[in-house]
Every structure is written in C-alpha cells, then in structure tokens.
Amino acid sequence: MSNHTNGKLQSASCPACGSRLRFKYPLQLGEFVVCDECDTELEVLTINPLKLDWAYDDPYEDDDDFDGWTYEDEDGKMKYVDEDFVDAEGW
Fold it and tell me: How far apart are CA 6 and CA 77, in angstroms?
C-alpha cells in the first residue's frame, strides 16, 4: 500500500470537533497528529482516503507480560502471586 499523494494536500475531519485538518507533508499509517482547533490527539487510520480517529493509548500495553498479581496480607505486607508458579502445598 502506498501513501504517495502526488504532492497534493491531504485533509480529513477531526472526529472530536469536526474541523477540517490539512497536511502539507505525507502522513504515515499509525502516525499521531493533534487537531489545531480542539487539541485532540488523533491517529492516522488510513492513508487514501485519509481517515483520522481518536488516538488510543492502552494503559495495559506495558504490562502485557505481567503474569501475576499482588495482594496485602494480614500483616500489611504486599505479596506477589505468580499464576505460572504452582504452589507445592496445593498439591
């Protein structure tokens, strides 16, 4: 898929405020831009035609490899439980 626009201005509507955004430079798929009118952060979903949507920031993205959980025991100490570790007492 090409993102070449033949030197033409690219434009799309902001999904938040509806204002028309115009870009002089070629955008890349997945690129983040900010609406000049409402300061909403947007992500490029498609290139031709240019389509923008709200940028999605997954709060759990950095924790994808987290396999366990923590809890506070009766003494107020934090305990970590690894779901991949089988407790020998439970056998």
Answer: 63
Domain with CATH 2.20.28.160 in the chain: 10-54
The pair of structure tokens assigned to 21 is: 């955004």
Q: How far apart (Å, rounded) are the C-alpha atoms in residues 27 and 31?
A: 7
- The Cα 60–Cα 38 span in angstroms is 27
CATH of segment(s) 10-54? 2.20.28.160
pLDDT by residue for the chain (91 residues), tens only, comes to 444 555 678 999 999 999 999 999 999 999 999 999 999 999 999 999 999 999 986 655 555 555 556 666 777 776 666 655 555 555 4
What is the Cα–Cα distance from 86 to 12, expressed in whole angstroms? 53
